[in-house]
Fold this sequence. Notes:
The structure holds 2 protein chains of 2 kinds.
Chain A: H1 3-33, H2 40-66, H3 100-111, H4 113-121, H5 128-150, H6 155-159, H7 167-185, E1 192-193, E2 196-197, H8 205-224, H9 232-261, H10 266-281, H11 289-312, H12 321-335, H13 345-377, H14 383-388, H15 390-394
Antiparallel strand pairs in A: 1-2
Helix pairs in contact in A: 1-2, 1-3, 1-4, 1-8, 2-3, 2-4, 2-5, 4-7, 5-7, 5-13, 7-12, 7-13, 8-9, 8-10, 9-10, 9-11, 10-11, 10-12, 11-12, 12-13
Chain B: E1 2-8, H1 13-22, E2 29-45, E3 48-64, H2 69-80, E4 89-94, H3 108-111
Antiparallel strand pairs in B: 1-3, 1-4, 2-3
Helix pairs in contact in B: 1-2
Protein name (chain B): Nitrogen regulatory protein P-II GlnK
Organism (chain B): Psychroflexus gondwanensis ACAM 44
Family (chain B): Belongs to the P(II) protein family.
Amino acid sequence: MDNALFTANNVWMMLCIALVFLMHLGFSLLEIGLTRQKNTINILFKNFFIICSGLVLYYIVGFNIMYPGDFNGWFSLSEVGLHLPDNGLTADYADAGYTYWTDFLFQGMFAATAATIVSGAVAERIKIGAFMVFSIIYVGFIYPISGSWLWGGGFLSDFGFYDFAGSTLVHSVGGWAALMAVVFLGPRIGKFKGKKIFAIPGHNIPLAATGVFLLWFGWFGFNGGSVLSADPASTSIVLVTTSLAAASGGLGACLSSFLVFKNFDITMFMNGILGGLVGITAGANLISPLESIAIGLIAGLIIILAVKLMDIIRVDDPVGAIPVHLCCGIWGTLAVGLFGNMAGIEQFFIQLVSILTIGGFCCFSASIILWPIKKFMGLRVSSKHEVEGLDIHEHGMDAYSDFSLNQN
Amino acid sequence: MKKIEAIIRKSRFDEVKEALHQIEVNFFSYWDVTGVGNEKQGHLYRGISYSTSDIQRRYLVVIVSDDFVDKTIETLIEKAKTGDVGDGKIFISNIEECIRIRTGERGTQAIK
């Protein structure tokens, strides 16, 4: 293999690492913007903890669990830490796509995303200690185990499951955990009273919007890097389908919001863009631009219906993490069986069974982590602390200490 | 001497300030306040409608000598009025004394 091509591929992959890293800032800003100012420090703290602990855990066990080489297809942990293989820095390692080090860091940046998704859904009421314990176990073990079943060459990959960059393996894995965590936690005080549903508006929409723009920007690396080389044909079509799905996801949500609520809701617009991005992630390299627009539009509609559904079933998700990452993640994974090169009834059922397998595993494992936390250390802050804010009670400080307009 | 307090719409503030300068009321203080009143503002967030009665207004305090009271009130009413619910209120009270810190002057001399 040409050495110059190897270098070019590796440079592209390292650029994608930086882009995926930036998505953590995007998630942080989105979560801050859509919640109240009294919980801002808490959200920033959780997001820093997720990326820091996630990366170190991925170094210790995660990478080895997720990519064990030859294994039984279910679980393997043969070594701890990083050990450079003999061919790790040569073109032989991964079809000249990248080096062993690049491989680790790119996958490591993905790993923390699953816990970030949970962070948004449980915002404004979870104990910081409980969240730390949960995210350590979930990112350290559950994410790489379910990831190994497909990307590590496990039984789902033999089964024929296809998930290009992680609609299911990253986004739904986070989404299922978010759903279970919210069910264990209960809604925020003041969200539901009797039969009435109350709005709890976010405190900084421009910050949330910055987060969404950054996430779209970072997704070029998330999907573009999942090509696993700088192959001109694949990377360029992937960036096109990714962007078109984001755009049509936003438009789909915008239009649905107007038809359903008679209102141009900016937060729905933003969730729609993210829904389109999550929806395209499973099949970004398989489909045509026109099909990506269809996937995005439907993802936008799903966002509106799912947000409405969350209110009806009394699930309080402040930032819309479950509609975006779980609902659109499922849609995107199923869409591989409906659109593009692999479409077919058989593939559709393979996708469906795999979604249910991963979903069952995630719900089960999230529950057995959350149950003892709730029982022995408490999952939720006291109502006094929740009302007065997690910033001052969990962290002893204010996010905007000498800047304040209306606090509520 | 009277203290004239007025709660007005922020959107009328610039015109009120200009008009007060024209009748030679050149010194006053103001700050932004949040109040509860008759006006209700409808909101819709993520498909849930809610209304808030918390409204944002600007609070002016003007201290004037007795011969300025009437024209100050007239100016305030003329410039702050839109005719819709929520135009605000004016309160008038007596001031016992006024002292300029720099010179120690008292009474109407100190107000100017």
